């Protein structure tokens, strides 16, 4: 029996991909967290502005996650072809995917920007919160094409087993956003007028542009691909769209859960949606943090599948699970120590802080479960198992999250209802992925 070569799934190789991916991953939610922290500490109408930023941030995340599934699909295709030593076969696929995403993002912007008031009214926003939401969104939405093109290029980088380029782009974008947030939101007397919530939107837009410019530089200088579109569709383009469509439906159901949560919180009152905005953005921050190891699983898993190295694929799942859970436990410990102080970074309103503290422990408690779910989710994406991921999310959302939310809300649990529903949701996702992976790959021969 041949000795198992575990160099592909060594601690060093996994972390070479995971650590830059963690840093790159947290940069995107860091932009939203920075907006919320800065806006939440503006003296006038801070609760309404914070609520608007949270609602819009959730909707933007939903739309971007849904539309950016071609990033995951192109990453899987590139990593699988890299493992099979056939990158030449997808030379035209990459520019075709980028052009497709550009057209799609322009279409979505053209639909959603004029309908912003209707969209955020559906979140139960009204009055000043609705006005803030509309103006904030119509600026942020201009960045759709910038973000989706950047994410597609990041998917190519990940497929090539390199996440450090995306990390450098994301960190630069986050730095630009933080600096401009303070300059544009608060202003500088005699030089820059205070633009409040709209200033935060412009800061995010400039940050997205900076990230795209850097991503294009790495793309042209460091990868074997180009941006010359071919009129003849690559044979892998249709399978890529099928995979992306399945992931689209998966992510749509995922975001239905988030939209429901925010709609219920908004209906409970402005203090509840303000607290929910902080909780959700911290949850997303943790998710992107842990998702660094899922990115490693995605990239390495796809490459191992391309090489038909199933034994190392099983080793990969065990090692990344251990690392991801460890990260989750460290996050729980840090937040447990600074439990009361964390909320004060985002808002000073005593009612909002009390609501935040009352439910934050549930967010922390579910982190190890999140780690398992996200890690296997990443591996399954790299393996191209989009149909199963779609079906599992549909079950988790409509047979898990929604009934749990309705029942808990019936008993008047409010914020507790929302986060109990999320707990049930993540339990279903984690268990479904682990069971499927064990059945399919535990005893599979090379």
TrEMBL record:
**Could you confirm whether the keyword Zinc-finger appears in this record?**
no
An example Gene Ontology molecular-function term:
xenobiotic transmembrane transporter activity
The record ties this protein, via CDD domains, to: MATE_DinF_like
Q: Does the keyword Transcription regulation apply?
A: no
Query: According to Swiss-Prot or TrEMBL, what is its membrane topology?
Result: Multi-pass membrane protein
Per UniProt, the keywords (alphabetical) are: Antiport, Cell membrane, Ion transport, Membrane, Transmembrane, Transmembrane helix, Transport
* Localisation: Cell membrane
- Write down the Pfam families for this protein, in alphabetical order: MatE
Q: Could you name the domain of life of the organism this protein comes from? A: Bacteria
- Matches recorded under InterPro entries: DinF-like, MATE_fam, MATE_MdtK, MdtK-like
Give GO terms for biological process.
Answer: monoatomic ion transport
What parts of the sequence cross the membrane? 49-68, 98-123, 135-157, 169-188, 200-220, 240-261, 273-294, 320-339, 351-376, 388-407, 413-435
Mind telling me which NCBIfam families this protein's record contains? Answer: matE (TIGR00797)
Q: What is this protein called?
A: Multidrug-efflux transporter
Its taxonomic path starts at:
Bacteria, Pseudomonadati, Bacteroidota, Flavobacteriia, Flavobacteriales
């Amino acid at each position: 029996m041949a000795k198992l070569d575990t160099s592909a799934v060594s601690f060093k190789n996994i972390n070479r991909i995971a650590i830059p991916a963690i840093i790159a991953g947290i940069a995107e939610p860091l932009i939203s967290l920075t907006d919320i922290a800065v806006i939440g500490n503006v003296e006038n109408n801070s609760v309404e502005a914070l609520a608007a930023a949270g609602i819009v941030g959730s909707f933007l995340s939903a739309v971007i996650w849904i539309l950016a599934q071609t990033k995951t699909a192109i990453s899987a295709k590139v990593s699988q072809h890299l493992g099979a030593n056939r990158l030449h076969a997808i030379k035209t696929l990459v520019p075709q995917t980028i052009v497709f995403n550009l057209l799609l993002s322009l279409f979505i912007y053209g639909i959603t920007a004029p309908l912003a008031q209707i969209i955020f009214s559906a979140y139960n926003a009204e009055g000043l919160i609705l006005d803030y939401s509309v103006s904030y969104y119509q600026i942020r939405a201009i960045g759709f094409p910038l973000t989706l093109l950047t994410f597609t290029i990041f998917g190519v980088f990940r497929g090539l087993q390199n996440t450090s380029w995306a990390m450098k782009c994301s960190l630069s974008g986050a730095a630009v956003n933080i600096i401009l947030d303070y300059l544009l939101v608060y202003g500088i007397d005699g030089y820059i007028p205070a633009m409040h919530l709209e200033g935060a939107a412009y800061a995010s837009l400039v940050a997205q542009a900076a990230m795209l410019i850097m991503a294009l530089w790495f793309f042209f200088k460091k990868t074997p691909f180009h941006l010359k579109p071919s009129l003849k569709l690559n044979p892998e383009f249709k399978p890529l769209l099928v995979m992306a469509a399945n992931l689209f439906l998966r992510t749509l159901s995922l975001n239905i859960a988030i939209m429901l949560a925010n709609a219920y919180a908004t209906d409970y009152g402005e203090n509840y949606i303000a607290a929910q905005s902080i909780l959700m953005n911290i949850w997303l921050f943790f998710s992107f943090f842990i998702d660094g190891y899922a990115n490693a699983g995605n990239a390495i898993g796809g490459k191992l599948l391309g090489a038909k190295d199933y034994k190392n694929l099983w080793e990969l799942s065990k090692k990344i699970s251990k690392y991801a859970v460890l990260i989750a436990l460290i996050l729980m410990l840090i937040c447990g120590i600074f439990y009361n102080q964390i909320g004060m970074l985002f808002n000073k309103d005593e009612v909002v802080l009390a609501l935040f503290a009352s439910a934050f422990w549930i967010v922390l408690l579910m982190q190890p479960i999140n780690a398992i779910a996200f890690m296997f989710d990443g591996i399954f994406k790299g393996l191209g198992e989009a149909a199963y991921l779609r079906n599992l999310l549909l079950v988790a959302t409509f047979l898990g999250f929604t009934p749990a939310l309705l029942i808990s809300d019936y008993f008047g649990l409010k914020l507790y209802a929302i986060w109990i529903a999320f707990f049930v949701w993540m339990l279903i996702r984690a268990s479904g992925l682990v069971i499927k992976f064990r059945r399919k790959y535990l005893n599979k021969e090379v």
